[in-house]
């Protein structure tokens, strides 16, 4: 069984009050706009790149490039990859290079879909601990790790519900389904097997030679984890700005 627990996300330590409107640098798309979907795609791209560059303090969001996750646990109990893998102080880097391929919104349900790719790649850098089995080989270690996703393609399907607070209506994201594809996954785990360099080098070589199989097994759990990360970021925006200021008639 695959499972993932996101224990903390440092996407903005400050708790901002309701700000009543989006930042001036963000675009607003009206439901009545005949070019609504084009406007929405451009607005989403603009917002994500702005958050990647400098964050948005008024919304309580620090920069998302790098995006720091203090702890991310992946438990993979059965199958070819059976491991307990914990990441700590893990930084996701590279979102500044994201290119949006599509973004749409349903004007009635507010369902959102978005897809993008990152031709410059995404990097994950932090600390790890691992114990278990990868394919036929046992693995254990604790130390620094570095992972690289080559030209990844990301897709998000977002669902939520309007929530009334006093006289105003806000939007609460309830589901952020996230999928990830990549041309190649490169991995490097330092200090495997209590620092045995020969065994560690052999295992890293083995992991990279079989990275497609490793990614196939771990991808559902990783996708769930990052979906939860981005859901929290989305709700930082939607919980502070009324729906009619984000998406007016």
TrEMBL record:
Keyword annotations: Biological rhythms, Signal
A GO BP entry: circadian rhythm
Signal peptide: 1-16
One cellular component (GO) term of this entry: extracellular space
Family: Belongs to the TO family.
The protein's name in its UniProt record: Protein takeout-like
Gene for this chain: LOC113212133
